[in-house]
Amino acid sequence: MTDPWVALEPGADPAERVRALRRAHETFTSVGTVPRPVRPVVAESWRRSARAGVGPDGTAGVELTGGDLGAYRAEHPLARVMPLFRELMGTFAADGEHLLAVCDAHGRLLWVEGHPATRRRADAMNFVPGARWSESAVGTNAPGTAVAVDRPVQVFAAEHFIRRVQPWTCAAAPVHDPRTGRVLGAVDITGGDGLAHPHSLGFVQAVARAAEAQLTLLTPACPGETALLTALGRDEAGLVLDGRRIRLSRRHSEILVLLSRYPAGLSGDELLCALYADESVTPVTLRAELARLRRLLGLQILASRPYRLTAAVESDVTVVERRLEAGALTAAAEAYTGPLLPGSQAPAIVRLRERFAGALRAALIAHRDPDLLARWAHAPWGEDDVEVWRALAAVRPTAPVRARLAALETELTAPVVRASGRTRGATYLQRPPA
């Protein structure tokens, strides 16, 4: 049986296959049907690309440059295995006039290395570090599709969705975090039609497995390692601790976020005031919550007098803060997946949430990057943020942006109609910042 993940079956004529694929591509982009000989994996990718609004004459956008790119790459987990990638693939890429590329889990290229003449050709289509090559941005391509389907994949010539990429052939395989199984990105080899051979797909898959094995050695799962806390954009935080993935209750999420912010610990009274607006809540209630949390985490993780965590905790909040402080605004915005514990009403969490989002939001407005502003404005937490929409309209005054801003400003200045149907003077709707 022919392997559906390999671009050309044995004995296939590459030139004839290219002609057939170009005819199929024109048919799909004009009438939306996918004729043979398009492979199912490619047909499904073309459909996803079309649903994402990708056009066949589009191009990749460069999202990270300079200091933003450098800071993001330096702290990305795949930076630790770049020496391995270069050792295993560098000579092959240079001698074969190919490119070695590594992307993150969003399809953004982090490194592109290899034959100088091939790199210059790739530069013309923005196959460069910092460019987004996800399926949703540029359609079918090996690194973007490998991340999308979480499988090693080859993309041959006119199987690419974007026409300017169709002279190329590439093979890519996803690389996973060995502790959590999360996709970290993909490793890719890009070049000419010769890469359509099954060996190139097996090659990148073997390199990806070697990288995962190396990451296992570099980050062994053992007691005392850094715990990973995810609390942005979700009411119930997630925790990875000693290889275990734990979903926390809302109250336990609040407690862990606060204790992760105060490594020296908090007294019972401080934690009580931070968590409960209701002054009638007794210390007994808090102690019961902490006892349940201690049983969940392990007796040695949560200490008392003061309450503190004995394991180092890296949270998605601190990642955004660190990038923001380093001036890597694009990377900070990418890591911000929503407000901190948005459903929490704990006084300290509310203050932290507003201060944290406000700092990022202010930086975006000051930076005036239209793509970053648009990302915030179209996110659930930014769709009613009139100040961000005003900043976006100033740098990208398209008709939809102006219309949305006009609707928001009208809503903000409209008198509030009470239940009785009567209007009450100068009472206006107030929308808090995101």
TrEMBL record:
GO process terms (BP): phosphorelay signal transduction system; regulation of DNA-templated transcription
UniProt GO MF annotations: DNA binding
Pfam family, one: GAF
Alphabetic keyword roster: DNA-binding
Transmembrane segments: none
Highest rank taxon of the organism: Bacteria
UniProt domain OmpR/PhoB-type: residue ranges: 243-309
Name of the featured protein: GAF domain-containing protein
Species the sequence originates in: Streptomyces dangxiongensis
Higher taxonomy: Bacteria, Bacillati, Actinomycetota, Actinomycetes, Kitasatosporales
